[in-house]
Design a protein that fits this description.
Radius of gyration: 19 Å
Helix content: 40-55%
Distance between the termini: 6 Å
Shape: rod-shaped
Amino acid sequence: MQFNKNLLNQVQSMANKLQQEMANERYEGQAGGGKVKVVVSGLQEVISVKIEPELLNEDKSLLEDLLVVALNEALNKSKEAGNNAITKLLGNMNLNLF
C-alpha cells in the first residue's frame, strides 16, 4: 500500500491554516463577578489579565483563587473551540489514506 502524499500535504496545509486562525482567536474567562478577567489565545497563550483595583486590598489567597478560576475558564473555552475546529476539519475531509 502506498500512502497518499497529496492528502498528507493537504492535511498539513489545513493544519497550518487552522493553527494560524486559532492564534488570532481570543477567549475570556472571568471570576469574582467579572472583577478578574483573563484572555487567552486559541493556542492557550495568556494574552491579558485584568484585576479590579479593589481586589488588591483583599486576601492574597482570594485573588489567587479567582485568577485560577478565570484562567481555567478561558483555557477551557479555547480548548473546546480548538477541538471543535479539528472535528469540523476532519469531518469535511474524505480520508482515503491508502
